[in-house]
Specification:
Elements: H1 2-25, E1 38-45, E2 48-50, E3 56-58, E4 65-68, E5 86-92, E6 95-105, E7 112-116, H2 117-121, E8 131-140
Parallel strand pairs: 1-7, 4-6
Antiparallel strand pairs: 1-8, 2-3, 4-7, 5-6, 5-8
Length: 161
């Protein structure tokens, strides 16, 4: 009888762990607060090479954003929901710009974004270094890069056709 009980415990632990992994896997996309404005700060960077989404970037010349590490939900960032049609809409000083998520900012807190050099320059001179009081939010985009309302299906021109 003791052997059967130990066998049940030994077999039950991996099954419980598997269930937790399966339940957690479906919630990654839900963790991104799409269309929920946040107030924070922006800095800029000018790295080039491969971004966290696994694509070539040049933050010195391209419009893009690195978002805080805390919003990334997968061990392999290439597979993260942030790399699948999510952009950041940034507003400050009467200007608004939507830039695609292409990288991760390891030193940014949850309301701090790291804009590429040209994206930052849209809002302030590079010499300023930090913009406090920006409003930003995650938005969904079509494959061609334009913002798509959450309720709207991604079709036609949003797909780049």
């Amino acid at each position: 009888m003791r052997i059967t009980r130990n066998l049940r415990i030994t077999a039950g632990a991996p099954l419980a762990a598997l269930a937790l992994v399966a339940l957690g896997a479906g919630t990654a996309g839900a963790a991104i607060p799409v269309n929920q404005p946040m107030t924070g700060k922006a800095t800029y960077y000018d790295d080039s090479g491969y971004g966290a989404c696994g694509t070539q970037i040049n933050a010195a010349t391209q419009l893009l954003v690195a978002v805080p590490y805390s919003w990334w939900t997968t061990a392999n960032p290439n597979n993260d929901p942030l790399c699948k049609g999510i952009a950041v809409k940034v507003s400050y000083g009467g200007k608004t710009l939507t830039v695609p998520v292409r990288d991760k900012c390891p030193s940014c807190d949850s309301t701090h974004i790291d804009l590429s050099r040209p994206a930052f320059a849209t809002f302030a001179p590079l010499g300023q270094g930090v913009i406090n009081g920006i409003t930003w939010q995650f938005v969904r985009t079509g494959l061609a890069g334009q913002t798509v309302p959450v309720s709207q299906p991604v079709t036609g021109s949003a797909l780049g056709h």
